[in-house]
Specification:
This protein is mainly beta. Helix content is 9%, strand content 53%.
Amino acid sequence: MAVWVSVLTATAALRASADSMATAAKPEKEYTGMVTAIDPTERTLNVRKWGLWSKKFSLGDSCACTIADKAAGTISDLRPGQRVQVGYQNAHGVLVADSVAQQPMRHDGTVMAIDPIQHTMVLRGHGMDRTFQIANDCKVVLRDYKAGVLGDIQTGNYVTVTYEEPNATPTAQRIAQTSETFTGSLTAIDLQEKTVKAKGLLETKKFNVGDNCAIMVNGKPDGKLSDLKPNDKLTFDYDEIAGINVVNRIAPPETSTKNVVVTEPSGGL
């Protein structure tokens, strides 16, 4: 009898232990929102989803942090204004995070205005204009991942901005202008098909004009295809997609971007 009681007691203890472990290891949940506060010393993180709806997380000792521009990050890399996805468990009301992954926010558009003194930029994309503050340490990336400077970004460029929102202010952390550039004399214009051809030093290229293509006239990106004339010397910013050259900016050479790869000699055709 004593042996049988011991067996029952041990079995009950094992079940209790298993139930306790099951309670501790609840299925992980996810929460996505904007970082509003981070305390690396106290290892706490506040994340807001909508309006005033927010959650406070305790960062576990083994909490893994993934930052957009790093293979692996640390808690100190997190800052207010970043969008993150938190993997966590709810332990009796305490939200314990074991993973925090930054989710980069990006916006594509045409540069309508840029002020290097005020560090602001207006992008037109998706049918609306949006103003971005430019961070002092904002990275500029050109074609083939070459490092650039803010002066390389000009009105009419089509760019991709990676940004954060500290204090609800969209702030550019990275500006990528990776289009290839071709300079030549205009030889053909098809207004109906929205295509143009230009002859450079070594070759002639045909371009399909994108819907949001910025055509620079008098320094402003609001020109029309009909404003172009044969033999005009122009610079085309374009992307080659499956062998098709899609142009996103057409401008006189003196106002073109600096990363020109083909230059036409003086003279026409």
